[in-house]
Amino acid sequence: MPTAHLTIDPAFPIAPVNRRTFGTFVEHMGRCVYTGIYEPDHATADEDGFRKDVLELTRELGVSVVRYPGGNFVSGYRWEDGVGPREDRPRRLDLAWHSVETNEFGLDEFMRWCAKAGVEPMMALNLGTRGVQEALDLLEYSNHPGGTALSDLRAEHGASPYGVKLWCLGNELDGPWQVGHKTPTEYGRIAAETARAMRMVEPDLQLVACGSSSSKMPLFGTWEREVLRETYEFVDYISCHAYYGNDDGDTASFLASAVDMDHFVDSVTATADHVGAELKSRKRIDISFDEWNVWYGDRSTRTDGPGDQWEVAPRRIEDEYNVTDAVVLGNLLISLLRHSDRVAVACLAQLANVIAPIMTEPGGAAWRQPTFHPFAITSRLASGQVLRVETDSPTVTTAKHGEVTAIDAVATYDDGRLALFAVNRSTEGPIEITVDLGRAGVTSIDEAVIVHDIDPLATNSATAPDRVSAQHFDSAQLKDGKLTLTLPAISWCALSLSA
Ligand code: AHR
C-alpha cells in the first residue's frame, strides 16, 4: 500500500482559526429563503414563520456568519421594499433569477432569523442599480441608534439597532450577467466613494470590495489591481468567489480542486500586496472568500422546466451532492483554514436548497446533504491556532492541476487539543499515513470520523436522509506518540486528539 507521512508541530502556527471561516450565504434565489429558511405554513414554523427544523440544522452546521441578500439578486434590490407592514410591500421582478420577489421576507426578518440561528449578519449592498445614498440609507436604518428618519422607522418596525459590521460593496460587478455590470474603474470609483461615506458614519465598519467573480474571468488580476488602486485605503477585504464541478467527468482534477483554491488565494493576496507596495501603504488587504462550493453546471438549471415563467421561489440549482462532492468540500475547507493568515471571511454558498448543505421540501422534511458533514465537523473541531502540516505523499496526475499530492491535510491546536483534517484525493486506492506529532504530546484519540462510501456517488434524499453520513474511523491508531491511519480512496477524515 502506498504510504504518506505528515509532520505536525504546535511550534509552527500559521494564524489563529478565524470563526468567520465558517460562514454561509442566504440569497433571495430559488428556494433558499422561501420554503428554505422561511415557510410560515410549515408544521415546524415558529411565530416569525421560520422553519425550526432548518434553524436546528443551521446551528448543527456550526455557521458563524451569513451573507445576505445576494448574490446577483442584490444588484437590482431595493432594501426598503422588504421592511414595514407586509401588506404594503411591493411585488417586484427579480432580473437576476427571472423570478417574482414578494418581499414577504426582508431585512428585519433576516436579522430576527440571525439572532435565532446565533449567527452574525454580513450585508451586501446594491451597487448595480444603486449607489452611495441608498447604501447610507441602509446603514442608517440598520445601525443608527435613533432620532433620524430611518433609525426611527426601524424603531417603528419594532427593531433595535442591528450593529452590522461586515458589508459587501456590491456583488460580482465584473460579470456581464450582473445588473449594473461595470468596468474595474467604474466599480472601483463607486465602491471607494460608498466606503468613504459609510466610514463617515461608522469608521470601524469592515468593508469588502468585489474581486473577480471567478479566477477564470478575462480580467482576473487586472480587475483586482484596478479596483484596489481605487479602494485600497477605504476597504478591508477583497472578495474571491469559486465554484468547482465535475461536469466533464474528470474526477481526478475535480478531487484536486483545492489546489486551484490555494493558487487563487495566493494570486489575489499577491495582487493586493502589489497594490499596497505601489501605494506605499502599510495596510494589508485580506480576503473575503464570500462564495465557494461545489456547483454542477450540467445539473444546475436556470428554470424548473419548459417555459420561462416569472414565478415566486421556483426551484433553482438544487444540486444533489454525493460522497465525492463532500470529500472535495472538506478539502476546500482545508485550503481555507491553511490560508487563515489571509482569508478573514468565507461563506459556503448557499445555506438551504440552492447548492446547499441543507435541503427541504415545501411542507415536508429537511435533511443534510453529504457536504453538510465535513463542514459541520470542521467547524466544531477546528480551534486555537492553525498549524502548518509538512506533507510527504504519493502524487496524482491531473489534467487541470498537474501533479498534486494525493494526501492533503491541515491541523489546529488549542491548549492541548489537536485536530487533524485530511483527505485522500486518489481514486486508485487506500494510502497509509503516519503522523509525527512533534511536541504536541498527544496521548489519546477522542474522536475519529470519516466521510467515505464504497459508492462515491451515493447521495441523501428526503426518503433516505442519512444514506451518507460521517462514520466512526476505526483505522486511526495512536502508539508511542505516533499516529497511523489508512485513508481509503476518495475520503475525508477528522480526528480530535488530546494531550
Ligand atoms: O450563489 C449563486 C450565485 O453565484 C450568486 O448569486 C452569484 O453571486 C454567483 O455567481
What does this 3D model show about the protein?
With about 500 residues, the protein is α/β, with parallel strands linked by helices. The chain folds into two domains: about 5-10 and about 385-499, Golgi alpha-mannosidase II (Immunoglobulin-like); about 20-380, Glycosidases (TIM Barrel, Alpha-Beta Barrel), CATH 3.20.20.80. The protein is built from ten helices and 25 strands. The chain has helices at about 50-60, 105-115, 130-145, 150-155, 185-200, 220-230, 250-255, 255-280, 325-340, 370-380; strands at about 5-15, 25, 65-70, 90-95, 100, 120-125, 165-170, 205-210, 235-245, 285-295, 310, 345-350, 360, 365-370, 385-390, 395-400, 400-405, 405-415, 415-425, 430-435, 445-450, 470, 475-480, 480-485, 490-499. The protein has a ten-stranded mixed β-sheet with strand order 22-21-25-19-18-15-1-20-24-23, with helices on one face. The chain has an eight-stranded parallel β-barrel with strand order 2-3-6-7-8-9-10-12, surrounded by five helices. Helix 3 packs across helix 4 (about 150-155) and helix 5 runs parallel beside helix 6 (about 220-230). The radius of gyration is 22 Å and the shape is globular. It starts with a strand and ends with a strand. Residues about 300-305 have low confidence and may be disordered. Alpha-L-arabinofuranose binds near residues 27 and 29.
